[in-house]
Each structure stands twice: as structure tokens, then as C-alpha cells.
Design goal:
Layout (H helix, E strand, L loop, with lengths): L13 H9 L11 H5 L10 H10 L2 H5 L3 H4 L5 H5 L6 H14 L6 H17 L4 H12 L9 H6 L14 H18 L5
Helix pairs in contact: 1-7, 8-9, 8-11
Length: 193
């Protein structure tokens, strides 16, 4: 098995961009592997966390921004907590995911569809509405029968309310306004919100 990264083209500005946008110093990573060893999602990664960090150091923008791992990251921050150099690896992963989105490099589209479904319910209710997220995700992904067998058991235990809990005292509207302003700003700047 060959896990070597083939260097075809280096972007010398890439690490500086990642450092600036994540407020981290990626060059401080000395490849101890603690981030990868502790990652609960590493089994689905095509590039491990330490390989992504090394890819950023080497300026391998294409390889890093096109990897599926950015989209499979759970954002649990286990990698950041285990880093002996106090690098917030999760912030670097989040930054890379945003960079990939802005360039329309979405390698796991269903994750993006779930993300939009989640945010849509927060925009309306001021917090997540689980059944609404599931319904929107099913519509966007066309995965109609996904986990359908779990529905009767979950509904029987009253774990998911049919009606959303809306944040009171104008909170939901305030959150919606904040999200709309962000979206408008992103669109003005030519960034994909």
C-alpha cells in the first residue's frame, strides 16, 4: 500500500493564507501524529489530519482542498486538544473547508446539503429543529428512505417534537437577521455563503 503524496504543484502563498484565516501557525506542526491518533473520524478520511497539516506546509493546495476529509471532519476538536504545540487543528480544518467551499470544491455534497438544512432551521426558529432538518435534508439529497426504519421507535419515545421550539422574545428574528446580514455580505464579497 502506497500512501505517498505526490507533489505536482506547490502554492507558496497557501500556508500564509491558511495561517491568516485560521489565526494558527501551521508551520509549528512537527508531525507528531497526535491529531490523527485521536481523531474519531479518521477511518473515513482520505488524508489524515497530520497529512493535511503537512500538505498545507508544503503548499499542496490542490490536494488539500480537494480531499474528502475536510467534509468528513466532525469539528470535535479532539485534534486541537491533543496537539503538543497548541495548534487549533480543528480551526485549520474549518478554514480549509471554507476555502474549498468558496472555490466550489465540495467533495462530499450530502454533508453540504445537511449543513444548509441545519442552518435553515436555525435561521427560522433561532435554534435547530430536528424534524425540519431531516425533512429538508431528505428533500435536498433525495435520500427518502434513509433511516426510515428508525422513525417509529424515535417518535414513540417522544425524542423529536413535531412542532419546533422557537426562541422567544424576538430571539429567533434576531438570529435570522444576523444570518441574513452574513449571507448578504458574503454575496457582496463574491464569497459563497
Amino acid at each position: 500500500m502506497n500512501d505517498a503524496i505526490v507533489i505536482t504543484q506547490r502554492d507558496t502563498v497557501f500556508m500564509k493564507d491558511v495561517d491568516a484565516q485560521s489565526s494558527q501557525k501551521v508551520s509549528a506542526c512537527y508531525q507528531c501524529g497526535n491529531c490523527t491518533a485521536g481523531c474519531p473520524a479518521s477511518f473515513v478520511y482520505d488524508m489524515q489530519a497530520n497529512q493535511i497539516m503537512r500538505g498545507v506546509q508544503l503548499g499542496l493546495k490542490e490536494a488539500v482542498l480537494n480531499c474528502r476529509s475536510l467534509w468528513m471532519c466532525l469539528s470535535c476538536s479532539t485534534c486541537s486538544l491533543r496537539c503538543p504545540n497548541s495548534i487549533d487543528v480543528a480551526a485549520v480544518m474549518e478554514t480549509l473547508r471554507h476555502m474549498a467551499r468558496r472555490q466550489n470544491r465540495i467533495t462530499v455534497p450530502n454533508v453540504e446539503k445537511f449543513w444548509h438544512s441545519f442552518l435553515d432551521t436555525v435561521r427560522v426558529c433561532g435554534r435547530t429543529y430536528e424534524i425540519g432538518v431531516m425533512a429538508l435534508y431528505i428533500l435536498r439529497s433525495l435520500r427518502v428512505f434513509t433511516d426510515l426504519d428508525l422513525a417509529p421507535e424515535v417518535l414513540k419515545k417522544n425524542k423529536l417534537p413535531f412542532m419546533p421550539h422557537v426562541v422567544q422574545n424576538g430571539g429567533a428574528a434576531a438570529i435570522g437577521r444576523i444570518m441574513r446580514r452574513y449571507k448578504e455580505r458574503a454575496e457582496r464579497e463574491g464569497v459563497r455563503p
